[in-house]
Specification:
Blueprint lengths: L18 E5 L16 E9 L23 E6 L6 E5 L5 E7 L2 E8 L8 E2 L8 E7 L2 E6 L4 E6 L2 E6 L6 E8 L5 E7 L4 E6 L7 E5 L3 E7 L4 E6 L3 E6 L9 E3 L3 H4 L1 E7 L5 E8 L2 E8 L4 H4 L5 E5 L5 E8 L2 E6 L2 E6 L53 E7 L8 H19 L5 E2 L24 E2 L5 E7 L6 H10 L3 H11 L12 E2 L26 H26 L1 H10 L4
Antiparallel strand pairs: 1-2, 2-26, 3-4, 4-5, 5-6, 7-11, 8-9, 9-10, 10-11, 12-13, 13-14, 14-15, 16-17, 17-18, 18-19, 20-21, 21-22, 22-23, 24-25, 25-26, 27-30, 27-31, 28-30, 29-30
Helix pairs in contact: 3-5
Protein name: Flagellum adhesion protein 1
Organism: Trypanosoma cruzi
Length: 578
Amino acid sequence: MFSKRTSPAPFRALLLPVVVVVVVASVALPAGAQFDLRQQLVIQDFFISRSCAGCSQGQTDGPSGLGTLFTAAGGSLGKDASTLLLCDYGGGGSSVRLVNKSGIFTVAGSQTTRGNQNGPAATALFNIPRAVVLEDGALYVADSANNLVREISNGIVTSFITEGLLGPSYIKPYNRPNGAHDLFVSDTGKSRIIFAPIQKQTFITVFITGFQPDVLQISEKSRLMFAICNSTKILAINMQGATTPRDYWQVGNADCMGYQSSLMLTTDEDKLLYYGVLKGIPSIMSLPTTKTKKEATKICPDVLLQWPHGPIVSLVNINKHAFYVVTSSNVYIVHDGSYHPTVTPTPPVTPTPTPEVTPTPPVTPTPTPEVTPTPPVTPSPTITIHRGFAVAAFSARSLPIEDPRLMHELLSWVMKDVGIAFESTDFFAVFPPDREVLVPGDVNVSTWNNLTVLFNFDHTIVITEYYTPEGMSSEEGQARLFASPWYWTRKFLDSLRETVTWKDLEAFCMVKCVEHCETMTFHKSECVGYVRPPVCNDVCVGAVVSSVVLGATGIALVALMVGSSANLRSAVILVPPM
């Protein structure tokens, strides 16, 4: 019935260490220059996940080329610049992982299971962790699908912020000038940034609201917070003064930003780096942080270097001359000629003197009996990776299905809301067969958008279908879509209804159906969140009240008529004598 699309192989087939030199120009620079666009930059492999075409594989520990990083998120430095901390929520598991020159290792959580369980790090469970930081000897984890911030200390996992959050996506510690030590959290599901003091009995305070935040960076020099806003913009937020921000403004011109993901403040705090795509070319971009509030909104980014290794999920600063680049499954170092990784030398081993041994007389060897070879052991099956299947159906009368251009724009907002609901961009829309006419007219939406649709039998319901992120069940994926507020989709449709052409569009409705969407006809009672109106509405109540008033008036008039003196006299006259 539907054309199901299989997921692509998540790993790049590259096992050997590779160094790529990106020559921007060959102009010498003074010592200490930081990521100047004229420098020669080098992309060096740090950790490359094992690639095995056709294998079912998930998270595995091991050296580069053998271990596997499945779906990375939220990188930060470990105890020194040679250690990188990451979250990994791919392959059905959810874990906190450490990457260094020796390979990749699981610090806490499970490589194959998701859940919510405190206790020893080896048995604790997380559910789609999105960010991890090391602060004062403890790890703090944004455990997104559990709506918690977790703490890992002395090998034990506990819950640090236990309530009030919805889908936290990023955390950033900050030492305020007044000595307060806070943990800032992107509470994305509630469209706000909050902070909590790093102490045993913590509590949360709202810092700013009004947008969906993601990655956070904080400049201690300028006391500005830089935050990703609604997945597309960078905001500068003034942190001086009271606990709530005085003002904020956009950094960069939205028309030339090309923002895709990640955000990193350089060591000198004078530049912001991010991953973007301009004119179809993926690159690491650079924006200055020193512009005035008025100038900041007009600037366009510089291209630091073009990026050839796939979408970036995290950029992590090392020092003035180098930074980590994390893709979904690999880690690289970008550095200039001044950077030389420090390798801790292995201390020489003092040989132990061998004592003199008195030779023993030779022993006649006993013949070794022939041993029957042990049959080979069937290897344990590797981790099976699966994607669930979910449906989002809508009332056709609430969508501009007669206009392919508007449908294209609408479906882009739908995809954004689906990603927010799944808390991941690792999902796929299911493409109906190419022969299907997807919207009225002769334009196939699939030729210029990443989502196409189906109709039910009488064209009153529009159906979209998705493969969930790897490891997310169909049940969980469907529940997330039903629970979604569809914020961006509603916002776009509301703007259409304000125009004369589309003022008659009906209110947005997600239809609560999964298996029978194509065979049912639309009725508003099938909408998610539908509340049945009372049996007697306002008009009905008014009619009842009016009837009661009229009835009471009629009774009063009859009583007055009967009780008048003339009527009494007539009644006496008409009564026959006994």
